[in-house]
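Hi L., both proteins are below.
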Amino acid sequence: MYQTIVVEKADGVAKLTLNRPDKLNSFNVEMHQELQSALDDIASDGETRCLLLTGAGRGFCAGQDLGDRAVSSDQAPPDLGMSVEKFYNPMIRRITGLKMPVICALNGVAAGAGASLVMACDIVVAARSSSFILSFAKVGLVPDSGSSWHFARAIGLPRAKAMAMLGTKVKAEQAEQWGIIYQVVDDESLVEESSKMATHLAKQPTEALANIKELVHTSFDYSLNEQLERERKAMQHLGRSHDYREGVASFIEKREPQFRGK
C-alpha cells in the first residue's frame, strides 16, 4: 500500500516504520503524504490504542531529503515556510494530538526534523548507539517542526540553544541524562523493549492516557489555578468512564483489569 513507510497492526498497536533506509529515512513529499494518510487511518480505525514509531535500517530519520528540494544558483529560492506549513507542522500536530500514547523506538541517528519527530512522541526508548543532531544551522536554517519548543522545555534554554547553534551530536546516554528521552537500552533489545511497552499501553485505559498527554503537554500554557480546574474537569469526565469502573472493580476483586479504552 505504501512505498516509503510500513504500517503493521496487531493487538491494539500500530507499528509505523519510516522506510527509506537508503536515504536514512529522510523526508520527501511522498513520505509526508503517506505518513499523513497513515496517521489519519490510525487515529480513526477504532482499534489502535498505541502507536509505535521507528525507522528501517541504520538510522531513524535524517530530516529533510535535501535532494528533494535542491537549491541551485539558476533557480528561484524555495519557499521553505510553505514546506513547513504544508507538511511538517501538520505532522507534529497530528502526532502530539493523537488520543493515544506514541512511543518512539529510536534506532540510529535522529537529525534535523528527524529529531523534531522524536520529540513529538510521548515516550522515547533509544538504542544505545542512537543519537540526536539539531543540524539546521549547518545549512543556514533554524530548528523547525517544534524543535525549539520541545528541546527548550526538555533540557532548558542553555542546552537547547547550544544544541541548535553548534549542531553537535548528542549520544543516547547523554540524551537520557539530560532528560531528552525516557530510556536507553542495548541495541539488540530495542525492538523487544519498545514492543513490550507498546503492547502494555495498548491494554491500558486509553482515554485516561490521552487526557494525561493533553494535560501535561499543555501545562506550560496555564497558571496553577487554571491547571487545577482542568484536572478537575478531566477527573469528572473520566469518573464516568467504563475503564474507571473496571479499574476499581478489578482492584477490589484482585484480578487483572480488562480496559476497553472508553
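That was the first. Here is the second:
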Amino acid sequence: MLRKLKLRPLAVISALFLCVTAFADEKIGYGQGVLTDENNRPTGAIQAQEQYGELSARFIGENGDKHIYLTFDEGYENGCTSDILDILKAKGVSAVFYITYDYAKSNPELVQRMVNEGHTVGNHTYSHPSLPDCTDSEFFEEVIRLEQYVYDNFGVRTRTLRPPMGEFSPRTLKLAKQLGYETVFWSFAYADWRTDDQPSPADAYKRITSATHDGAIYLLHAVSKTNTAILGDVIDYWRARGYTVTALG
C-alpha cells in the first residue's frame, strides 16, 4: 500500500505563506506571442524567463540548448492519449503529461501507463481554476490535493506545475516555489484544443516544425487528433536537425 504524504496542516501552510501576499497579484495571461529573435526564439518567452525565472518559472531554455522539451496538457480524454503513448514509445521519447484530478480519476489506466513507460506526470491542479483568483489556502488545496491523489494512486510525486489557461501572478509563482514546484509554461503553443476546428495535418506540421528553436518547451493538447497523427513525423523532423526530444529535466 502506498503511504500518504505527510502534509503540513493548512493553518501552518497559510502562516508560512503570509509573507507572499506582499507580492504583486495582477493576473497575467501568458502567451509566447508571434515575434522571434534571429534564432527563431520567441521574444515573449525570453522576456518572461528573464522577468520571472528567479521565481522558479520556466518559459524557455537557453540558446544553444539542443533539446525540445515535450509537454501535453490533459484536460479530458478524447481518445488520443493511447496513440500518443504508442508513438512516444516507438520513438523512445519521454514527455510530461499535465493532468487534473478529473482526468486522473477517469483514466487511471492511461496515467499508470505514463508512469510505467517513463513519462513525467505534472500537476495541472485539482480542479483547473485560474490560480490568481485563488487565495493562498485555495492555491495550496489545488496543488497538494492533486499531488496527494497522484501519489496515493500511482506512486509518483508531481514536481512541476502548469497553471490552467497560462494565468499566473508573481504571488502564485512564489507560492509554487515555496511548495518546491517549478511553474512550467511554454515557448510554443497554438489553438490545438479546438477539436471542432482542427487544422489539416500539413498545416499543423508546418506550424509546429517552423517554430523549432533551441530550448523549446512545446505545449500540445492531447485532445488534438491532428497533432496525434503527425507526432511521429514531427519528432523525426526535430531529430534530423540535431535535437534531443525529451521531458523536462
